[in-house]
Structure to design on (365 residues):
């Protein structure tokens, strides 16, 4: 196009993000049956109050409230944390970006614990920062001494997904405490909090370096509307409110949060169903002698494939209309990640896995 020389090198050399498969793709639309277990979405969808309220809404011609006044009062009620600590964004992805916008210059460093959620690296690359990656141990725990050794004057953010994606595991409280003691900005990404029941949110009131991220994408079934929020010390929240895109969160998403939080009984029942199904699915996966499922506190299960070829299983499932996640990256090439579906979806998944693996006898070459 002749404009390459003008493009920022961070963008030109960017490795990007492999997104999940959309149901809008022609090949997906053409398929006889699609079971979507690849993006940790909620198979039961949002509260029925959400589509109803969106259908009746009369204000789409107006810009949304840049101050996020109403949503903050709803989130204050839901989290128990005062509104001056809260900032909403278009998905927690956007809040991750805002943290880079606030803290990270080109040449700075951020720490994450692999394998983990890819968006920390995504924004690090785009902002010209270096990801200092600390691989987790065999049980996915974090070596805190190693963290202390790699911290440098250029370290600006430490990201901990908790539960972690894609492992589904929780960090020890001692690990989080040790991270907080470093005094560096610590981001605890609790995208799956509602499935784990474990949170450090109340500590935001005590620790000036703790930021907690949450989302409505997973438990509340609102992934398509892009709405998440963060809990920050008030000083950081004020900066974020100042530097965020003014109308970051659209009116439909704001309305959807209100309706969701007015229907907590429905959403909590849906989360309970998913947790119960997670345990049932885990037991069934364990029954296959060629797959090792990792116990999960989220709404997905990471599975190791004994013969080492995660991609073959991913492709075998895809050809049967079942979408799961395969990560083409070191340490995960023998894995697939399966989002917990409805029992009837997971039964079809199990039949497909048995078919691929030749009963319970092991994966065919
Ligand atoms: C750990 C983690 N954080 C954040 C997100 C992104 O959530 P959102 O849809 O709110 O941007 C995900 C989604 O997969 C995730 O796994």
């Amino acid at each position: 196009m002749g404009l390459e020389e003008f493009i920022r090198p961070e963008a030109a050399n960017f490795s990007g993000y492999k997104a999940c498969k959309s149901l809008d793709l022609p090949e997906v639309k053409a398929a006889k049956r699609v079971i979507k277990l690849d993006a940790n979405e909620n198979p039961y969808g949002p509260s029925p109050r959400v589509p109803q309220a969106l259908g009746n809404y009369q204000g789409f011609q107006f810009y949304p409230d840049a101050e996020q006044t109403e949503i903050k009062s709803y989130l204050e009620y839901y989290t128990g944390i005062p509104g001056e600590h809260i900032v909403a964004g278009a998905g927690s992805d956007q809040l991750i970006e805002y943290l880079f916008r606030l803290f990270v210059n080109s040449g700075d460093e951020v720490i994450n614990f692999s394998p983990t959620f890819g968006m920390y690296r995504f924004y690090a690359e785009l902002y010209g920062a270096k990801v200092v990656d600390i691989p987790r141990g065999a049980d996915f725990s974090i070596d805190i001494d190693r963290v202390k050794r790699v911290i440098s004057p250029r370290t600006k953010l430490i990201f901990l997904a908790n539960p972690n994606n894609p492992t589904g595991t929780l960090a020890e409280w001692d690990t989080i405490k040790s991270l907080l003691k470093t005094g560096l900005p610590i981001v605890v990404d609790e995208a799956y909090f509602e499935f784990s029941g474990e949170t450090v949110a109340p500590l935001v009131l005590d620790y000036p370096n703790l930021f907690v991220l949450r989302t409505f994408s997973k438990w509340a079934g609102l992934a398509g509307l892009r709405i998440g929020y963060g809990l920050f010390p008030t000083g950081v929240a004020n900066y974020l409110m100042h530097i965020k895109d003014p109308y970051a969160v659209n009116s439909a998403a704001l309305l959807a949060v209100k309706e969701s939080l007015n229907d907590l009984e429905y959403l909590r029942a849906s989360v309970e169903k998913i947790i119960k199904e997670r345990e049932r699915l885990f037991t069934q996966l364990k029954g296959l002698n060629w797959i090792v499922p990792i116990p999960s506190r989220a709404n997905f299960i990471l599975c190791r494939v004994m013969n080492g070829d995660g991609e073959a299983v991913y492709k075998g499932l895809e050809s049967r209309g079942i979408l799961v996640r395969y990560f083409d990256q070191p340490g995960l090439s023998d894995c697939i990640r399966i989002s917990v579906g409805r029992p009837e979806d997971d039964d079809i998944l199990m039949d497909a896995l048995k078919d691929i693996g030749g009963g319970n006898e092991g994966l065919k070459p």
In short: Residues 18-45+265-357 form a domain with the Aspartate Aminotransferase, domain 1 fold (CATH 3.90.1150.10). The first helix runs from residue 9 to 12. The first strand starts at residue 35 and ends at 36.
